[in-house]
Fold:
Amino acid sequence: MAHAAQVGLQDATSPIMEELITFHDHALMIIFLICFLVLYALFLTLTTKLTNTNISDAQEMETVWTILPAIILVLIALPSLRILYMTDEVNDPSLTIKSIGHQWYWTYEYTDYGGLIFNSYMLPPLFLEPGDLRLLDVDNRVVLPTEAPIRMMITSQDVLHSWAVPTLGLKTDAIPGRLNQTTFTATRPGVYYGQCSEICGANHSFMPIVLELIPLKIFEMGPVFTL
Amino acid sequence: MAAPPEPGEPEERKLLGFLDVENTPCARHSILYGSLGSVVAGFGHFLFTSRIRRSCDVGVGGFILVTLGCWFHCRYNYAKQRIQERIAREEIKKKILYEGTHLDPERKHNGSSSN
Structure:
């Protein structure tokens, strides 16, 4: 989860998120250099003694400041498109979970190996135990295995919601009447948090998502299905 | 990268308020080499031409080019290293899982080399 006043991305828990962080670093370095150049140009503009108001021709400069931004955009677009297509790869998921958004909770369905269906409500502050996270912890977590490709089918029963888990690099809209799909592979066990990311009413901020990722061997022993 | 700062640690500093040089791989290395390149290019230009403003322009241009060059070079090597680490991790996992069985990669490799 994010720590207080965190601005940067959370640590990656999936290969896609690692790629996204790499791309973010790449784009940020280019942005930093452009900002540096612009600040320098601004400084020159403010400190120059040259005040010729009749300049009308600057073909070379205009060519440079057309070609250079195009090259910069290509340098940013190519890795971006690579990751975009990578996120759309479907690599034979081992497990499919359905996630249905409601006002204001999530329903999860594990229908691959039985008919496990449960709701996931945010824990109200009065029900928090010491160590629980306010506005983030839920009564029933989504328990999933690590190192296995998982498919999430996301939809909504009423209004628009969005199922998001930043550390996995996931955000998929839950749209009523439509089934959206996202796949991921978690690389390390742990408890990971997300929040609804599409305005959906009064309690939009109070319907978090909590994933409990456990090793595949332990998941196979069936802790989820003893609910 | 996302860990909160410990109580004794100094606050994280970001260049121009957003580039986290400490925690971004290759950033510190690129910025330092870029600064060095900027000083060398700008000062060198000044020594040859004695033009201050143009030397500053050369210095800024040198900073941008050297930083970008070091950045791409370092990130390419970093990506190669990550791929090698991932392959090594997978091979170690496979080795632990399949050691002594007919799927042991070493047994397959020794079998094919003896043939």
In short: Chain A touches chain B at residues 2-4, 6, 8-11, 18, 21-22, 25-26, 28-29, 31-33, 35-37, 39-40 (CB under 8 Å). The two ends of chain A are 25 Å apart (CA to CA).
